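Technical appendix A lists one of the benchmark inputs used to test multi-chain prediction within the project. The record comprises two sequence entries:
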Amino acid sequence: QVQLVESGGGVVQPGRSLRLSCAASGFTFSSFGMHWVRQTPGKGLEWVAVIWYDGSKKYYADSVEGRFTISRDNSKNTLFLQMNSLRAEDTAVYYCARGSGSSSLDSWGQGTLVTVSS
Amino acid sequence: DIQMTQSPSSLSASVGDRVTITCRASQSISSYLNWYQQKPGKAPKLLMYAASRLQSGVPSRFSGSGSETDFTLTISSLQPEDFATYYCQQSYNTLFTFGQGTKLDIK
């Protein structure tokens, strides 16, 4: 079955960087667009970024544009999110999710917590 | 950006009740509207896609309707496992956006 496992979260100081990974299995990773979605503790969901199945296109939420970079390694079935110049407001649980052909997010990982604090 | 507004923000209901949650888009999104269910400490789960299509494995007591700017998610007869938070999400624009969520709890 489809499995997505995020890793790389932790506590980081404001202004520093962190790289999240999402290991995919159970499906042909190279055929699907992939997304990152975050959720501030106790709050709602915020879409962060998407990367096309072949990595050819990438789009970002305004709140992270210019600071975050989404990438993928199809040979290793892994999605990444490079987060630079982190701010307190980036504190959240970060989920990776698979984009379906119907333009929905049909499978999600369990999430990894990023805490930005001095 | 397309703004998504859900109502109500919270809702109390009883097992067996019929409940409806509304989602409104700030511009027309055709039928590019999805619904998710999230339980505490868990990842969201896709319930409905394309406004009215039931995701595989989701019980038929869930249904969705609407187009353009106004959408609804209906649960025909609430079960104990349905108490959760529900989110709508538009996929008309490449930059997805979610509603703020509707928390459904037990009356």
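The mean pLDDT of chain A is 97. Chain A touches chain B at residues 35, 37, 44-47, 50, 59-62, 95, 100, 102-106, 108-111 (CB under 8 Å). Comparable benchmark entries are summarised in Table A2.
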